[in-house]
Design a protein that fits this description.
disordered N terminus; alpha+beta; elongated; 15 helices
Length: about 475
């Protein structure tokens, strides 16, 4: 394409640029990179636009493990696994929150699990990726997470990016897509973007949105998931996940999934040096009434949900020797308004502003369970640590997130749908732009990165094989 060939001249002069390609991909995280590789594989001329200075998105910040059952890599290592066992666990986890939900769509989950195997093997056979460890994680002991050889998520996205660059696929960073261009019939025919040297207009036969979710946008959380307001700055999601794609598709009357929620990653705090509390099952959680509200020994995503559901949650820590380093951080954080200290349990309750009698009863009940190994909430003995060493501390707890379950409605080809179920011509979405159908409110280990790659692969394939 002449416009692509002459881009260096236009940009050096700081002029606006107009380009013509088969497929334009908005976003260079796991979804966008996989979409570009798949579209390229199927013969399309592809351009990738990324608003941040670096590629990789939230996928690069992850551990890089992708879940799949029955892959040839599991078979080679003698790992026995099945889609049925994964589905059973999926249903068990999704039932722990929001019991009246219409989600997940288990037909879509089943489809995803089948395609996950294809993606897992495609990454090696076509892209040149390689796996190191295949293992479980936390409360998910089955060895189905395929981790990159030599590192985490940045290795995974780096391998795909390097493949694309070796193949001559252009990736433009610091170029933010701001609008989807549509024709008179409402079909997508390109995008408008802002690059470092001016406006970029891309005329394209297909547009793939891979812009991520909105876990890092307080404005979007307030609009769609008000329970999670206040978590954006604490999120582990990539800084660029601020809902750009959602804003653009709203103008096209795209159907938006109901019941959006956050992807949980445990418990967050706002005091330096206390990050170990994110997944610490040995601690005690209480609400603003001084009552314990959950078994702390739970999947990290469920822990996030419990914290978000609770009224003014706190984490309780005593001065046991094993907490010595943590206590130093808590002492340093006393002037932040996030931590309080009491020489007695009663004094701590007063500092927290919770009912003293209720809080004392909560601590006594918890300690009794720790002593006899029989916790009323079901925590196992290994993590039952009594709260008995003065001084005592309480730190405010927040939900730790790493993304959102939300986005626009899509079909199995990743084509974006309108409210009436019709397809918005030439427009695709994947990753967190369209992941809600798979989940109620609980994340499944290794599934977000797998969905990013799988949805991207499917979108790129369909787009490239249906060029007009």
């Amino acid at each position: 394409v002449e416009a692509l060939k002459n881009k260096e001249v236009s940009e050096s002069e700081g002029e606006d640029v107009e380009l013509d390609v088969d497929v334009v991909v908005a976003g260079a995280g796991g979804t966008g990179l996989a979409a570009a590789a798949s579209a390229h594989e199927n013969g399309a001329e592809v351009l990738v636009l990324e608003k941040m200075a670096n590629t990789g998105g939230s996928t690069a910040l992850s551990g890089g493990g992708i879940s799949a059952t029955g892959s040839k890599f599991q078979e080679e290592r003698g790992i026995e696994d099945s889609k049925e066992s994964w589905m059973e666990l999926w249903k068990e986890r999704q039932a722990t929150s929001n019991p009246d939900s219409q989600f997940p769509d288990y037909e879509r989950v089943d489809y995803f699990m089948d395609e996950a195997i294809v993606t897992t093997e495609w990454l090696v056979d076509y892209v040149g990726h390689s796996y190191g460890d295949i293992s479980g994680f936390g409360l998910d002991p089955v060895e189905r997470l395929h981790f990159p050889e030599g590192g985490g998520g940045s290795v995974l996205t780096g391998n795909i990016e390097q493949f694309l660059r070796d193949e001559g696929v252009e990736i433009r960073t610091e170029t933010e897509v701001t609008e989807i261009i549509v024709d008179d019939e409402g079909n997508a025919v390109g995008v408008l973007a802002q690059g470092p040297d001016g406006k970029v207009t891309v005329n394209a036969k297909k547009v793939i949105l891979a812009t991520g979710g909105y876990a890092r946008s307080e404005e979007m959380l307030e609009k769609y998931i008000p329970e999670a307001v206040g978590t954006a700055d604490l999120s582990a999601a990539a800084a660029g996940t601020t809902g750009d794609g959602m804003v653009m598709t709203e103008k096209l009357d795209a159907a938006v999934y109901e019941e959006p929620w956050v992807i949980g990653l445990g418990v967050a705090t706002k005091v330096e040096g206390t990050s170990s509390l994110m997944m610490d099952w040995s601690k005690l959680y209480v609400n603003g009434n001084g009552e314990r509200f959950t078994n702390e020994q739970i999947h990290y995503a469920i822990a996030t949900n419990r914290i978000l559901e609770a009224d003014n949650p706190w984490i309780i820590i005593d001065s046991a020797e094993e907490n010595a380093e943590l206590v130093q951080a808590l002492e340093a954080g006393l002037d932040t308004g996030e931590v309080v200290r009491g020489e007695s349990v009663e004094a701590l309750a007063e500092e927290m502003g919770v009912p003293v009698d209720t809080f004392v009863d909560t601590i006594e009940t918890y300690n009794a369970g720790a002593q006899n190994g029989n916790d009323e909430f079901g925590k196992t003995e290994d993590f039952l640590k009594p709260v008995e060493n003065s001084p005592f501390y309480a730190i405010k707890a927040y939900g730790k997130t790493m993304g959102t379950f939300a986005g626009v409605e899509i079909n199995d080809n990743m084509q974006v749908l309108r409210e009436d179920g019709s397809i918005i011509g030439n427009l695709y979405a994947g990753g967190e732009m369209a992941n809600k159908a798979l989940y109620n409110q609980v994340y499944m280990s290794g599934s977000a990165v797998q969905w990013a790659l799988t949805s991207g692969r499917l979108a790129g394939e369909h787009a490239a094989t249906n060029l007009q």
